[in-house]
Specification:
This protein is mainly α and 186 residues long. It is built from nine helices and no strands. The chain is globular and about 55 Å long. One of its GO terms (molecular function) is sigma factor activity.
Length: 186
Amino acid sequence: MGSMQTGQTDAELIHRIRKGEHTLFACLVERYQSYVFTLVLRQMGNREDAEEVAQDVFVKAYRSLADFRGDARFSTWLYTIVKTSCATFLRRKRPVINSLDKVELAADTQNPAETRSRHDALNRAIRLLSPEDAQVLTLFYQGEQTLEEIGRIMGLETNTVKVRLHRARHRLREVIEKHYRRESIN
């Protein structure tokens, strides 16, 4: 029975959940867990806080599912919840986060065990970028959003998103070359 649910579109699942099949929300969580977690982790900088906020995002999404009008993709709607949840959490905790994140990054670039996959290195490189750059890259690659959708989320013109994405890619390349050149040679 579980496999039947996976073939359904988000809209079909949401329709059934609203009609009372609440257990189907687990399918949406499963579908968007890593997307939400990746977005949240970028903002938080540490797994513990990210896990707490990601859970909070799904709780809020479940509670406000009735507000989802379906005029944007579910992932786009979910992203707006991620944004407000992160902002709320960081407002309460801000001063510690930034300094911790820098120390953590400095430490783990010197730890060879931490460099085991290019994915980790890429994620760390993105965390070194400005929040705006990280946001546009994450939405484009992780969320697979179109430039139009990213524009709607970030409140920008599509053209501005294009320029930002181009600049963010350029900065990411610089960061990777500067911090990870040694690793890629080995």
